[in-house]
């Protein structure tokens, strides 16, 4: 595994109306790693993730993606965003487009691929998430889990350097969660760099290379899953993990 960071966050701060949400986040994700971010609601997890592609504007700090500082004034943000795939809680599919049309859209409109190439890449991405047979269906004809897998296909079709997942299973019925997590495991096995904000503790424990626990806008603890879940060093981490253990 390449030791250089694919994503590096240094001294990240963010406030809303004078209320600090992120209080100096430092985080490195190496190429090919799956890093899961856990923590209570309101701890700043999703805000941090959205800062990584400037969907949220940081107040201070540095964010480097594949060697490019996305905070620099001269950085072409649209170009850099093509290296950063994003999967949201909500599926955000266009209801009037087919599954194939949804996945092809950015390939044609943003990356300007010829139709034949966009079609081939979209079909490959749908194959990866086991949704190719639904290529001609519309989002309204799919289950939530299927829609989220199409959302993942839309992201990986752009062949990004890193994929960001913001609670990708939180809007799904419990029985649909497994198929989405399985796709994410397959992406990890294929070498995709992934930063995942999740409340799926069993997934974080089983699949992550590293787990980051956030609370109160700071990283309280990070380490291997067996350390964070099995032998947490900080009192706040212990309390959070024990609450999870008590309900499972």
Mean pLDDT: 95
How many strand units? Answer: 10
Strand residues, percent: 25-35%
Strand order of the largest sheet: 6-7-8-3-9-10
Number of helices: 9
Largest sheet, described in full?
Answer: 6 strands, mixed
Shape category: globular
Secondary-structure element order, N to C: EEEHEEHEHHHEHEHEEHH
Oligomer: single chain
- Poorly predicted regions: none
Termini, distance in Å? 33 Å
Structural class, please?
alpha/beta
Radius of gyration: 18 Å
Helix content: 25-40%
List the helices and strands and how they pair.
Layout lengths: L4 E12 L2 E12 L3 E5 L6 H7 L8 E6 L2 E2 L7 H5 L2 E4 L11 H11 L5 H14 L15 H14 L4 E5 L7 H16 L3 E5 L3 H7 L2 E6 L2 E6 L1 H6 L4 H12 L2
Parallel strand pairs: 3-8, 3-9, 6-7, 7-8
Antiparallel strand pairs: 1-2, 1-4, 4-5, 9-10
Helix pairs in contact: 3-4, 3-5, 4-5, 5-6
Verbal overview:
Helix content is about 35%, strand content about 25%. The protein is built from 9 helices and 10 strands. A 6-stranded mixed sheet has the order 6-7-8-3-9-10, with helices on both faces. Helix 3 packs across helix 4, helix 3 (about 100-110) packs parallel to helix 5 (about 145-155) and helix 5 packs parallel to helix 6. It is globular, with a radius of gyration of 18 Å.
């Amino acid at each position: 595994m390449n030791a250089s960071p694919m994503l590096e966050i240094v001294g990240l701060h963010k406030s809303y109306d004078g209320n600090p949400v992120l209080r100096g986040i430092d985080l490195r994700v190496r190429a090919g790693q799956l890093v899961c971010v856990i923590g209570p609601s309101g701890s700043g997890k999703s805000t941090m993730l959205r800062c990584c592609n400037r969907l949220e504007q940081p107040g201070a700090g540095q964010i480097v993606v594949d060697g490019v500082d996305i905070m620099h004034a001269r950085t072409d943000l649209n170009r850099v965003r093509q290296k950063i795939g994003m999967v949201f809680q909500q599926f955000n599919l266009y209801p009037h487009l087919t599954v194939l049309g949804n996945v092809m859209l950015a390939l044609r409109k943003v990356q300007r691929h010829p139709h034949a190439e966009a079609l081939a890449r979209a079909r490959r991405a749908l194959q990866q998430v086991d949704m190719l047979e639904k290529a001609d269906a519309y989002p309204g004809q799919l289950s939530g889990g299927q829609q989220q897998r199409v959302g993942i296909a839309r992201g990986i079709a752009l062949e990004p350097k890193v994929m960001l997942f913001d609670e990708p299973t939180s809007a799904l019925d419990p029985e649909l969660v497994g198929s989405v997590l399985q796709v994410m495991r397959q992406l990890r096995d294929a070498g995709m760099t992934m930063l995942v904000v999740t409340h799926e503790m069993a997934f974080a424990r089983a699949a992550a290379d590293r787990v980051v626990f956030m609370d109160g806008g700071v990283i309280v603890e990070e380490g291997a899953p067996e350390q964070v879940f099995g032998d947490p060093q900080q009192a706040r981490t212990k309390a959070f993990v024990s609450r999870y253990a008590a309900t499972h």
